[in-house]
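Batch manifest, entry 17 of 40.
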Amino acid sequence: MSNDTVISARDLSLTFQTNDGPVHALKDVNLEVGKGDFVSFIGPSGCGKTTLLRCMADLEHPTGGTITVNGVSAEEARRARAYGYVFQAAGLYPWRTIGGNIRLPLEIMGYDKSDQTERVNRVLELVDLTGFEKKFPWQLSGGMQQRASIARALAFDADILLMDEPFGALDEIVRDHLNEQLLKLWERTTKTICFVTHSIPEAVYLSTRIVVMSPRPGRITDVIESPLPRTRPLDIRDTPEFLEIAHRVRDGLRAGHGDEV
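Output type: structure tokens
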């Protein structure tokens, strides 16, 4: 494992026991995520993308192989608050203001009041929500709620951000805007981001590496290193380089489906 490896999976497998028999969610997954990478996971529904992310976060426990985060077990990394996690739904408490929602993990972790205030202000600025601290979630659009959710995950300044289809429910225009904002945020903070998506253009636009997964049992069928520059305007999506990567992702997804037949 190289010095800048942040997440390392070795022969990672996970089988769920159900009333209808075992479900093989992941099988023999090998992957390294480097410091500062933006890695997207793409594959058909039920292919184990979210399960893999949840293993990184110690929300699921592998039944075979190993996974380490910052060189320690996923459990130790969770205890050390090594990552922030952004779910598909914003998951904001409706009775708390936006500032109150962002402050919640800081309260749980015992940060003092002045430190909480400083951190909340900083992350609100990072996600372009300055001035909305006293609003309630229902007063914000879906896209703004997801930005608040990202701010909450950034509040305690973890180096790793795990994101499970955070923009999947948003319309295309809002999604494009948030994709641009997320790339700027990644550039400014130099965090390591693992991002689950169903969208080929989103995966190609955002990532330094794209991990293509097969239908269940989830295996990695391709890892595509992106040659695109780190600074990417939206119209890069019309370039031959972009379309070539998108084509390779699509081929990888098709090939994975072929294995199933």
